[in-house]
Specification:
alpha/beta; four-stranded mixed β-sheet; three-stranded parallel β-sheet; about 20% helix; globular
C-alpha cells in the first residue's frame, strides 16, 4: 500500500474524506421568493456544493485554513462543478478522482417549511462517493 502524498509546498491544516454532493435549495432573491413551502410547490432552486465533508472543507478555508479533499466525483459536468468550486476556494483536489462506470454525484433537495423546519430528499443510487476505495 502506498501512502497518499500531497504537494509538500502547500501546508494543509485539514484533509477531508468522503461525501460530496450537489444540493438544490429553494431560490430566494429580490425577484424569486421560494423560501418556505412544500418541495412539490418549489419551481426555482439554487445549486450548491454539499455533503458534510465538502461543507467542512469549504468552511475552514473561509477561516484562513488550508484544506485537502479525498473523494470520488462523477465524470460529468457536476463533477467539473465540484472540482472547479473546490479549486476556486483553494482546496487541494489532487486526490479527487473521477468515476468510470457511470456513477453520479448524489443530489439533495431541501424542503424549507419554516425558519425552524426543513427536510431533505436525497438521491444516492450508484453515488460516486460510495465508489471511493483504498486503490484510489
Amino acid at each position: 500500500m502506498q501512502y497518499l502524498k500531497f504537494d509538500a509546498s502547500k501546508k494543509l491544516d485539514l484533509i477531508l474524506l468522503g461525501r460530496v454532493a450537489i444540493d438544490f435549495n429553494p431560490a430566494y432573491s429580490d425577484t424569486v421568493k421560494e423560501e418556505f413551502g412544500p418541495l412539490k410547490d418549489v419551481h426555482y432552486f439554487e445549486k450548491f456544493v454539499g455533503g458534510s465533508p465538502a461543507n467542512i472543507a469549504c468552511g475552514v478555508t473561509r477561516h484562513g485554513m488550508r484544506a485537502g479533499f479525498i473523494g470520488k466525483v462523477s465524470d460529468d459536468q457536476f463533477g467539473d462543478y465540484v472540482t472547479d468550486y473546490f479549486n476556486r476556494k483553494g482546496i487541494d483536489t489532487s486526490h479527487i478522482t473521477r468515476c468510470k462506470n457511470g456513477e453520479k454525484l448524489g443530489l439533495t433537495f431541501t424542503e424549507m417549511l419554516s425558519p425552524k423546519e426543513s427536510y431533505i430528499l436525497m438521491y444516492r443510487n450508484m453515488a460516486a462517493d460510495l465508489q471511493l476505495s483504498v486503490e484510489d
